[in-house]
Records
---
Amino acid sequence: MPEFNDEIWKRSIHTLFRPMVDFHFPELHPLIDWSREPAFLEEELANLFDPKKEGKRFVDILAQIFLLDGTEKYILLHVEVQGYGSGEEDTLEFEERMFEYFYRVRDKWKVKDIAALAILTDGNPKYRPDRYETSFFGTTLTYVFNVSKIIDYDDKELEENSNPFATLMLAAKRALKVERSNDETKKLFKIALLRLGITKGYTAKELEALFYFVDWVVAFSDSKARNEFVGEVRAMAKKEEIHMPYVTSIEEVTREETREETMRAIAFKMLKAGESDDKILMYAEISPEELGKLKKSLRRETC
């Protein structure tokens, strides 16, 4: 499974929240007063739950919205990033968690109307939790929530859909296919998606969200490939006369990553030469934790 980074999903959904609602809740979208910015309540939501279980990663988003009639509503979005399997126990755990979201949000904010959606990013067609049910001697509860499974969408339909969130869903789906490919294939994949966004006439803000998403959803194996990718994006933006200032920040991050790789290489050579820890930390400018990892690598290499 590709590295569906938690923060990248959250940032993308925040930026593309309006097209996300239009994509997943087309009947709700025209009822919302979009002159009032949605309020995102993830910090408050996180305080209602225990820390995430080891190995299970997900993104929780709670947005307070207002309809045109002035009433306050909520949209609860859960993106299953990775960690859930397909067995009965995993399914029951997921469904119960979705129900916990609903009743805790309802209790905390004293609201009745909550539109809940789970986006499933896994590639298992048999894994389809969509409701929580419990019954005990005549007392029965059924909670049904909306589910969007990435692999269910048709590539061509997503390509032809002008909605920016449709393109993001396309990126997430295709990422499942190219995650084990070489860097050249990954680069072509990312460039093609960005070209698609440009062709569809997305705003700079929408292109930025898409750029960051495709940049991280499938990672390159080395910084050289990422440098080439960023360079091609800059050239493409210049040709299309699109102002993409966020590319500069990626270039800065990439340069810093290259520098860190160089420092680690220097430290590793110094370790092999038997230099002291203090000297390595001073000259290579790495953290003690990173030095510890390099020592472990050296031990494995010499075994």
---
Amino acid sequence: MTGLHQLDRRGFILAAGAGALALGRPARAAVPDVINIAFFVETKPTMIAKGNGWFQDEAKAKLNWTEVGSGAEINTAIAAGSVDIGIGIGSSPTAAGLSQGIPYKLIGMLDNIGPAEEMTVRKAANIKSPADFKGKKVATPFGSTSHFRLLGFLQTNHLTQADVTVLDMRPDAIVAAWSRGDIDAAYVWSPAKSKLLAAGGAVYETYKELDAAGYVIADLIVARTAFLQQYPAAVTGILSAYGRALDLWKTQPAEAAKIVGQQAGVSAQVAQSDMEEYDFVPLKTQLSDQWLGEPGKGGKFDEVLKRTADFLVEQKSIRSAPGPDVFVKGTDTSALARAAG
């Protein structure tokens, strides 16, 4: 935000285009009638590009938006062919999706999450140490990066799901359950996290320990493989629009936060505070070896996906993890390279 649960959040033109390019002539780009996009309501620059209509302008097509509550929902929708692009899917459900052969490509990333997704505990629950989680109810969206981190937290602290009741809830349901007093803690992202903190919650820091232990998480952009092959210009436009929004955040943070706050239903101050917790990776930086790498070369992030998939097998969340080459082939940065200029 199932993949970790149960999968629940024209050739002629292409051939002609390829032939024209081979002859050095510009080919007319195919334009889709509509692009089906799955997205999260989040306090991130993506909301700028959506709210200002930049995604639609740059893609030069009508957009059909579907809000999701976890990356597992994006996996389900792309597997069913009802979504073309997933914006903000986490690295954990992406690793699961590629492992299970869902027909999409990792085409870009939003951020290195770091502390932006974190455990939030109810102050009244008096949770001060890992042992204090025993007997408590902790909610998270299953099939998400937060779920992956929560499982990592339990494992690294020698806790099991027999010790802690782990509940599967979408972010909006987590906020509602918190207000009713039904849960003691939650692992989730903002704006839900911010709302919990404002309603008697406190951060229980886990990210430093988990990052060091290899539980690195990131938010990504994926495109259905057939759509990417048929409409490369539209995909490039989507990435360009995101790059434009990211530039606004970097150069005019107050203005960016105002737009994001309006789109996410929080104040500009909360939106800015939330965004400052993320490491938003510029498009050109994503093409470095440290992240996704240049087209056809791969990058270190492929290794993160492989390690994540291996962990998911260990947790019996997916049946098996493929070899590293699947994650290398599952990444296509050609549109990203065009968008980055």
---
Amino acid sequence: MTPESFAFLSGLVKARSGIVLTADKGYMLETRLGPMLRREGLAGLDVLALRLRSAREERLAAEVVEALTTNESSFFRDGKPFDHLRRLLPKLAAARAPGQALRVWSAACSSGQEAYSVAMVVTELGAALGGRRVEILGTDLSREMLDRARDGAFTQFEVQRGLPVQMLVKYFRQDGARWCVKPELRAMARWQPFNLLEDARGLGRFDVIFCRNVLIYFDAPTKSRVLGMLAGMVAPDGVVYLGGAETVLGLTERLAPAAGERGVYEQARQAARAG
């Protein structure tokens, strides 16, 4: 693959998803796009890059971006955000007007483990939420991942990653080699395609936003843009959960770390009052 072809393909991916592919990612392109090249009868990435320069290849361009998106997720990933969520939701429920639902957004949700983990937390809290309805939205730019999330079926390996056995038995049923989310839990989440580079105002306001381990793939201007968007969508007393290796430092002044918490961010004026 020529440097020009790599520059074109990496530019396409960045423009459409925000993901930055550095020069050492040539092997990843060859590995992930190999099946597509064989299916389309293309001799290599240079030929693919040439073909994608045509405006008529929208379907193929979208498939390239999806293939190069890292879809990594697990149930109750990193643990601590969900411990915090268990403490937070009853407080938010008590602060809301009668009949007002709590809204949770799992951004870049991949195959749905994070959103289903939230659903399990909500169910376990039960009466502590005072009958408050909780809406859970999972979004991702990968329609393939959203189909998997909507299907709610996971492998033995996937359910062994972070999911306590008692919750597996309680909320899943075994179907051959797969574990399927029970209908009542599946009904708690809805799924829709969404790109974090798009205008998010149509999604509405959220009390809790999970956007974890996504910013690490973006450059600084894109991180700032996304964080500013999240700050504008979270309720004044709500929180944004980021990955443990992610920060708002030097990227936005609209979000600040919650006191004594790791990976938990509040609107800056709320954090200032708490301090």
---
Amino acid sequence: MKIATLRAWFTLSKPLTHVLGILPFSLGGVLAWNLTGSFDWAVFGLGIFGALLLMLVACYSGEYFDFETDTLAIPFRNRFSGGSQVLQKTDTIEPIHSLIAAFVCLILAGIIGVLLQFHFKTGPLTIPLGILAMIAAFFYSAKPIQWAYIGLGEIWIWLAYGWLSVATPFYLLTGGFVPVVHWASLPIAFTIFNVILINEFPDYPADKQVGKKNLVVRFGKKKCSRLYALVSAAVWGALALSVWMGVPQKVFIFTVPVFALSVMATNRILRKDYRDEKKLERLCFGTILCNWGVTIGLIMAFVL
């Protein structure tokens, strides 16, 4: 395979975005180790590989089914929106190849789920949890459902990159759930909600043109900027609640810089900084940093 083709596939895969899923999955593993004192590296390794495959499913299927809207978004997009643009700007990869890659990753993820449940005996909910993740990943953009097109995309992202990404590895490693797992996932779920919400701002003209019914198209940027502020407040309310429900209090120490960044981003979006392309790009990046920071803060709180 040519170097140019490898680079194209690497860009198409959007590796940095997968940190949004790998970090909460790691938190689930840390929780299992912290609360039970045991850890199976084979199970965790297979689990995180399966999670990565499903994130690639969402990525590749999205590149294929969002081809039209990503093409229309070219004049408005920034580094965090509008797809990878590999299919639009090069002829190295055909759109159909992206869809084929999505199916290959989906099949491989299914095989991993079967191995985990029946060979590693991870529990009867292994495959159901995997199927839920598959439904979220593939049908986020894929027809005939297209969660992102009918106004449910943000909810699926909230679930998949929040609770599901934390609870699944914990279940695989322990065979059950405990309440603190659910509470610890809640602030992460709210931060990822804001990530997807702010990334819809630059894509608004293209999404509206193709008939996407995400929150920004439905309610407009002004109302969604207020929603962003409310969800930002919910992040910190959820974090405080999670501490009350068993998360170590030291999480507040590790998330002080994130709180400052969150307040600054919220202030800027309420000042309508999203009307400036460069400022909006910085808001998108800042929101991603909030997600990473909250998740890393939770990991550090349990590790230390």
